[in-house]
Design goal:
The structure is a single chain. By secondary structure, this protein is α/β, with parallel strands linked by helices. The radius of gyration is 14 Å and the shape is globular. The termini are far apart.
Length: about 130
């Protein structure tokens, strides 16, 4: 099993999963982390950019991942990833290692408010409350 965590700054779990280009990818076996590596994508492979240019079902470097943990993810992205078999967990946890450990033991704090839909074609320089 693979778990990907958004980490644009390489240190914490970051928001805007669709625009994220840096992910910690954890290899999990028997509910234990057996490996961790940083995946850095070019801009055109961010989920946001690839949605504009390629089929939603086109191959992506995070294909085969079971779970994406992020600080925020829009409804459209969650739907697209769900179609690829990738579950999305939006959390208030900020530490990638703690988030993965918490997910594995069922204690990851999840955001319960509805996701903001950032997939529409509007100015993305806005701020979220």
């Amino acid at each position: 099993m693979k778990i990907a965590v958004t980490s644009q700054n390489r240190k914490t779990i970051t928001e805007h999963a669709g625009k994220c280009r840096k992910f910690w990818v954890y290899d999990i076996q028997n509910q234990q982390v057996i490996g961790k590596e940083l995946l850095e994508l070019p801009l055109e492979q961010s989920f946001h950019e690839s949605a504009q240019t390629v089929s939603p079902q086109a191959a992506h470097p995070l294909d085969g991942t079971s779970l994406l943990i992020a600080a925020s993810a829009g409804r459209g992205l969650q739907t697209r990833l769900g179609e690829k078999g990738i579950q999305v967990a939006v959390t208030t946890e900020t530490d990638p290692d703690r988030a993965v450990a918490a997910w594995l033991n069922g204690t990851l704090p999840l955001v319960t408010e509805p996701p903001h839909d950032c997939d529409s074609h509007h100015d993305h320089d806005h701020h979220h409350n």
